[in-house]
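Usage

Read records sequentially. Each one opens with the input sequence:
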Amino acid sequence: MKQAKIFIVDDSPIQLILLEKVLQREGFAVEAYSNGPDLIKAVSLDRPDLIISDIHMPELNGFELIEEVRNLSEGENIPCFLISSKADTLIRKKVDAIGADGFIKKPFEYQSLITVIKDLLKESKLIGQGACQNSKL
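and closes with the structure output:
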């Protein structure tokens, strides 16, 4: 069985390393990026099965990142999941408005995140790499 490939992006080096290690321990192939533009370039070259992005980042925030990914022919159906330390009503509305496939507030239990990731990956396989099921914790 093919190992699922997950691209993650976060401007916090500590958060990026922790998330990368947890996902690798779960058996995922992980590519970590410290900014959105680098992830966008990588998607053009090598399509991931899932993208996890922090919302609040310089250069390109998580909302802008998802919009750019979805505008790429390679990225239009990649499930995209957002994480953030803020989860007010405005953030949640924007997550829904851009069609993110999920959102979780930091800090989070890694096992909860893994469960959501596995559900999104299973769902995307079932509907032919489809998107927008809006799973939320």
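Summary fields computed downstream for this record:
- The beta strands are 5-9, 29-33, 50-54, 80-84, 102-105, 135-136.
- The CA atoms of residues 89 and 95 lie 10 Å apart.
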